[in-house]
Design brief:
Elements lengths: L2 H20 L54 H18 L7 H12 L1 H19 L3 H16 L5 H15 L7 H37 L7
Helix pairs in contact: 2-3, 2-4, 2-6, 2-7, 3-6, 4-5, 6-7
């Protein structure tokens, strides 16, 4: 190879190397930033009424004496006895299952053992309605009876009411007629205790629901 060709080739290679060195470096590949993670706010379920009761349940007001304004207030001894009889009647009809099998027999024995006292109580109540209401006393008496049975038949409290009724019925069949008034006063308070506890629990639910609404708004349909 001629010397000048050799130097020409070397010069060409050097020029190419210099040209390559002058080329800009390719841009660096930058990985895209990950999308920000959006934290979803957790909304707890709205409080629900105790014992599966309706959200439209109306709780009786508390009277100045601390008791609830129910159909079982301001009763005389005979009325108290009659209201206990009604409660045991409801229990005998609606409390089912092995735990409550004795209720029907206990109720029938209670009626049989105290038929005169119970008949006297019923007649006294009817006379009271006739005296206080006048000619329309029969309708007023029927409404009162219906309200009384509806009170004891409040389905969300069926189990605790039936439990109390069993305890009361066992004492009812061995109570002597002379002791009926004192028995009835104690029995009425005992039979009402599940309702009293429920009213307190329901009021607590209402307070919890109001606090929930303040923080989260109205609950979705179905809560």
């Amino acid at each position: 190879m001629a010397p000048w060709n050799k130097f020409s080739r070397i010069g060409t290679l050097a020029a190419l190397a210099l040209l390559a060195a002058c080329q800009p470096a390719p841009p660096a590949v930058v990985a895209p930033l990950p999308a920000p993670v959006v934290q979803q706010q957790y909304t707890p379920r709205a409080p629900t009424p105790p014992f599966g009761a309706s959200a439209a349940t109306v709780v009786p007001n508390i009277r100045p004496d601390g008791t609830r304004q129910t159909i079982n207030r301001d009763l005389g001894p005979l009325e108290t006895l009659w209201h206990v009889r009604a409660a045991l009647n409801v229990a005998a009809l609606s409390c089912t299952g092995p735990l409550y099998e004795r209720l029907v027999g206990d109720y029938n024995a209670f009626i049989r053992n105290n038929s005169a006292s119970l008949r006297n109580a019923n007649n006294a109540i009817i006379r009271k309605f006739r005296r206080e209401v006048g000619s329309g006393y029969k309708s007023a008496h029927d409404r009162h009876q219906t309200q009384m049975y509806n009170y004891w038949s409040f389905s969300p409290l069926r189990r605790p009411f039936c439990d109390r009724a069993v305890q009361v019925s066992q004492r009812a069949i061995i109570t002597k007629s002379a002791d009926l008034n004192s028995f009835a006063a104690e029995a009425l308070a005992e039979l009402e205790s599940p309702f009293t506890d429920f009213y307190l629990a329901y009021e607590e639910y209402e307070r919890d629901l109001e606090a929930w609404r303040v923080q989260y708004g109205q609950p979705a349909s179905g809560n």
